[in-house]
């Protein structure tokens, strides 16, 4: 066991050293924000640093990543503003020169003249004119003319609305804010189209793919993509060898003939947790309703079956709430599970536990409703920019809630860590054979509380590369990293209490699994940052280690088989059939959603072309719901199974389980994946901006595929209905029980 702990500690320490080192490189080599942008021919100042920074705040206030995307991060209906800006700017300049020099359209020129104008364009746009001495950027007059045309175009989109982009009329009407927003969009395009000093690639490693300015995939991206695939195959082989050699070495237990938990002593704090499950069920239902509205905006723009809903609930709000509620209810489920199991782990109920549970419950409701209201007010421009940052819409996907609500949630997590942690410390002091299992559980609990605060490491005027760096600490490390460790250990603990695993074996497997997962997961955070204004080291390390994230997922078939065999081993285990079925679904979607669909977008060569397309939506739905959502549902069911004293009629759960999984498969196969493939082909062959344009997304074929999603959505929604019906009914029954032992 000592060797396994040494391996775990070494992995965590060394991985964070690397991740923090890359962070220092991000700070030092990020694209500069100039003090002034000057026209070369006239010395006229067209933008200042304040314009760009305030423009970023304006972009955040209208929904940020929920209204199109920047550098590939964000929603899918409106364009990627960076890619779109670059393409329109390039087309304007080429057409101007073609008309001026040859009196014809650019596409009508012969090959030699087209090449000459393209070379002139590349020199003008890609030459880095940032002067570090006076902190200025110089642009040509013709480029300013192109920028001016873009300003007019984008100002019209945000003030007059754009149905196909799901942007309502009057989204932003303040003339000064529109100018500042355009200044920020210009800067993002400048960084993505201007070569780094003494390099032949841009600050975003030539992303987006734009043939007109020779923004083509770099040699580094190609090389590290190839190496990541080689390493993937190598480590799959090594892990399979390790698994086959060691998986039978745990203590062999004779499974008991009766349920070891049938005499479980329940306490008052566990009853207090039950109300969480009712609220979580309501949040799940609301999230699905908002998802239906959001996806419908992709086919009807600003209406919901003819009803003008966007004036009240625009796409930017429904998508914000849809994604944010997913994080809220999944996290709340896992936190409630920790509170429910804590007395089982320690064997006693700590003082003030019920008060803490009730306080956190009220705080959860206040944070959810308060942040949603703030986001609505922010997007509708009722808040000034600073107030919006603290109470409104921060503008970053999965981190949309205002800073005040983040801090409030962080305080709640600290309280949760204390409430669960003191039970774990009490259990560790018993020094029994469960010690190692409880220690790794305590580590994951403390990490969940601590790493949430990474989302507070940037400020109102921090730059986009810095914000994205810390954002993925939260989204990837907090959710996909330490919550995953927490979930693994909780399942191991439950199985050990059911005497399916010995506590000693469960502890050894949990620590080893955490070490294997985090070996790729911590540094693998960088695969989100390949093209976010980060240095090339992020591509090298992100590609290498994100491939390792997939390795343990390849063994999910063994986990599915073992859980399936478990159900057939003893009659009493049938009592836990549906929680185990949900855990089996988690293993399946871990392999498909996180593994297969995750690796589709992990290598740099893939992400270069398909970042921010519907292929990303495939991964996010199958991984976020398929893995974390199903796991949260499994936790709810097993907690209710521990608490309930009646025999379950499993019809609702059976329907919920199969409808959810069939619906999710149909959603992906009939709609999201085919659209993603069409977009990927367009991005590779024509350029990234074409893959995000309305001309493609509203073409007859893609529109048909969007409508096809209704099949999966209806099936999936029916599954949600049955799950929420079962959960609320069972929770209410148990909540009304007076005598519980």
UniProtKB/TrEMBL annotation:
Gene3D superfamilies the record matches: Cytochrome c oxidase-like, subunit I domain
Keywords, alphabetical: Membrane, Transmembrane, Transmembrane helix
GO molecular function terms noted in the UniProt entry: cytochrome-c oxidase activity; heme binding
Alphabetical list of Pfam families matching this protein: COX1, NorB_cytochrome_c-like
TM ranges: 5-24, 222-244, 273-299, 319-342, 354-373, 404-425, 437-458, 470-495, 507-530, 536-558, 578-601, 621-644, 656-681, 707-728
Keyword Isomerase: no
GO annotation, biological process: aerobic respiration
GO CC aspect terms: membrane
Keyword Plastid: no
Nitric oxide reductase subunit B cytochrome c-like domain residues: 37-209
Protein's recorded name: Nitric-oxide reductase large subunit
Species of provenance: Bizionia argentinensis JUB59
Upper lineage: Bacteria, Pseudomonadati, Bacteroidota, Flavobacteriia, Flavobacteriales
